[in-house]
Amino acid sequence: MIRDITIGQFYPVDSPIHRLDARVKLTMTFIYIITLFMINSFIGYFFVIGTLLAVIKVSKVPIKFMLKGIKSIMLIIIFTAFINLFMTRGEQILWQWGFLSLTLEGIFLALKMCIRLVLLIIGSSVLTLTTTPIQLTDAIEYMLRPFKKIGVPAHEIAMMMTIALRFIPTLLDETDKIMKAQQARGADFDTGNLMQKAKSLIPILVPLFISAFRRAEELAMAMEARCYHGDENRTRMNRMTMQRRDYHALVMGLVYIVAIFGLRYVSYLLPFII
After folding, report:
1. Which secondary-structure segment (H or E) carries 46?
2. Which one of 79, 124, 131, 264 is most buried, by most CB atoms within 10 A?
């Protein structure tokens, strides 16, 4: 389960998606996330799934590696499906017991929400799997640069976000090592009720927090030793420049937005596809 989390990892391979400017990929990810909440029909979800599969194919990242990240949020997906199934009010009631009711509208809403969560995780993973932490830091800082005029610390925000993403795989590996060490000492994390399983996590959380604070202190000392002073008089070895392929990607993103709006308009005209 720990190794199934793919967000924050970088998959090193040469592909057209990897060679795109990080600012373009970040912009396209934001557009993708926003459009996920605009879709109101299953035909729209089919279109997004087809587009996402095409992007994954071009990125040369194995689809099995992408789907591994779904296992880590399976509990959230099940909880979301339960809430939408039995808490959604509708006209066509299929089953009812007390305050719980299963409606046809609830089934469709639960299915849409689960698909949306899966697409959200996979789409976000494409960004981190095809972009190095340094490129992502520069892209976030560049896009937050206009907000510096109103006092927003763009560089510090970009640095914190990137460090958080960078240390997700490291902390996951540390958690895996701690769990194996505790299991070698006779710890059991699989049996028992919910409270017993929660208590069994204490021997994992305590050393994990200690390790995280130790790594944070080591990182702070390393940055101070290299005379790091934030964005003050900072220079970059690699300048971010837009190329022809980046503009082509932006045009394709514009076509994607137009298609989403078109499908949303069609869903209003044809209610039977909702």
Report:
1. helix 42-59
2. 131
